[in-house]
Design brief:
By secondary structure, this protein is α+β, with helices and mostly antiparallel strands. The protein is 50% helix and 10% strand. Helix 6 packs across helix 14.
Length: 367
């Protein structure tokens, strides 16, 4: 934690503490990168800030999010950031192009012109260098010793926050891999459904982005999509994999998979942000006019995520081969779904789906 000294006034010290609390309140790594970059740039009166993460296995640095920059990967020891990652020392440069350590290739790749810069290590609680923070182009022309002291104070909080975010990111990846395995156990029951769950998740998130849903909502929808058919694990194999048309009794059993999905997922522990997953996953066969199942919900009573997934699920079913028919072409499926707008499907969701569809598949070709 920074201490008040001759370079940090009491007001600035309070500001640093406030910024540190903000850093530690963000656990999602992309948001944390953006917050650290924007806040540090503002406090140091700089044009931009880049956050690099150390990959010890590959002996590389990478940045996932940097203001105005594409993803950049550099070897440790190369460029100012690479030097800092290896030495753990702060580096201040008044004219980057006069410093032989500066890697001009990054500017060539991004089209940016680095002038002055200051860079320092991001260190976790175990004393390991886990990243580098690099601030570019001070508005005054060069970075001062006061700027370096301020960056040292900020980087302490940033290093701790980055360590937590990286751990969370790894846990999130593990969670998603488990979801994919669970989904694959259902998809593998029948060769025609291979990849269905992943595609529904992909389509659902594409629609949600068109509707400008928050990233947190996308994450919940993604999880619900991967689990939406999990109740099929309780459906008899001779029904689940039966070629051709199901009998009325078999169809009722097949429909019960959504109830079973809700029942199974309701017994799982979901953190507060994921509480809606069982409800969304269990409602993807509800219809906008109330004629769906299992609860005959209609319109706004159906969770938005379920209304989105309903379109995605049907689109994938129509564009996939089945025992009794060949897959439709995407534009044919789109037109068939259009006919059900206002009855089976939410008009607003369909409008977003059509925008997503056009981006993905383009307009229909002329006959």
């Amino acid at each position: 934690m920074p201490k008040i000294n001759d370079r940090i006034s009491e007001d600035k010290f309070k500001l640093i503490l406030k910024v540190g609390q903000a850093f530690n309140s963000v656990i999602e790594i992309d948001r944390l990168f953006a917050l650290i970059a924007s806040t540090t740039s503002k406090l140091l009166e700089a044009e931009r800030c880049s956050i690099y993460v150390v990959d010890t296995e590959q002996n590389m640095l990478w940045t996932r999010a940097a203001q105005g920059e594409n993803r950049i990967v550099v070897p440790i020891g190369v460029g100012i950031a690479g030097v800092v990652a290896r030495s753990g020392e702060y580096v201040t440069v008044d004219d980057a192009y006069d410093d032989p350590r500066f890697n001009q290739e990054v500017d060539k790749e991004t089209g940016y012109r680095t002038k002055s810069l200051i860079a320092g290590p991001l260190i976790n609680n175990s004393g390991e260098i886990i990243g580098v923070i690099q601030v570019l182009n001070n508005s005054k022309g060069r970075f001062s010793t006061d700027d370096e002291q301020l960056l040292r104070s900020l980087s302490g909080f940033a290093g701790n926050a980055l360590d937590n975010a990286l751990l969370y990111d790894e846990l999130k990846k593990t969670f998603h891999s488990v979801l994919q395995v669970l989904a694959a156990t259902i998809d593998a029951k029948h060769h025609y459904t291979a990849g269905h769950t992943a595609r529904v998740a992909d389509y659902s998130c594409g629609i949600a982005r068109e509707m400008e849903l928050h990233e947190d909502e996308l994450e919940v929808l993604r999880v619900a999509a991967f689990l939406h058919d999990y109740g099929k694990i309780a459906i008899r194999d001779n029904v689940l994999t039966k070629p051709g048309k199901l009998s009325e009794e078999e169809y009722e059993e097949m429909k019960s998979h959504v109830v079973k999905t809700s029942e199974i997922l309701s017994k799982m522990h979901f953190s507060e942000g994921y509480k809606e997953v069982p409800l969304i996953a269990g409602a993807h066969h509800e219809k906008y006019d109330g004629s769906g199942y299992p609860a005959k919900l209609s319109n706004g009573d159906i969770p938005l995520g379920a209304r989105i997934m309903a379109v995605a699920d049907v689109f994938d079913a129509l564009t996939s081969d089945r025992d009794y028919r060949e897959a439709m072409k995407p534009h044919e499926a789109l037109e068939l779904i259009r006919k059900e707008v206002g009855t089976s499907f939410d008009p607003e969701v369909f409008a977003a789906f059509e925008n997503y569809f056009n981006r993905r598949y383009g307009p229909p070709s002329n006959p």
